[in-house]
Amino acid sequence: MFPEVLIAIGIGCSLPITYLTVCKRKIRKELKRKRGTPISIKWAPLWTEMECEGRHETRFEVWYKDSGGEPRLAVCATRPFSEVYWKENP
Prior knowledge:
The protein is of the alpha+beta class. The protein has one helix and four strands. It has a four-stranded antiparallel beta sheet, with helices on one face. The N and C termini lie far apart (49 Å).
C-alpha cells in the first residue's frame, strides 16, 4: 500500500508542474514569434484585472525585452490548447 500512495503523490505533483511547463513553453514560442526575448515568466494565480474569452486560462507575469532591447512587463493568459492572450503594461 505504501508504494501506491507514493506513486499517487508523485503523479499528483507532476501533473500541475507539467501543465505550467507546457504553458511557459507556449509563451516563449509566442515571444520568439514577436521577436521578443523572455527574461522572466512567473505564474500569477491572483491576477484579476485581465479579461479573457474564457475564465479558465492560467495567468502569467512576463518580463521580456522587445525587439529594440527595452524591458517590458506584460500579463498573459493561456492554456496548453488555446491562444496566448496578452495585456501590456498592467
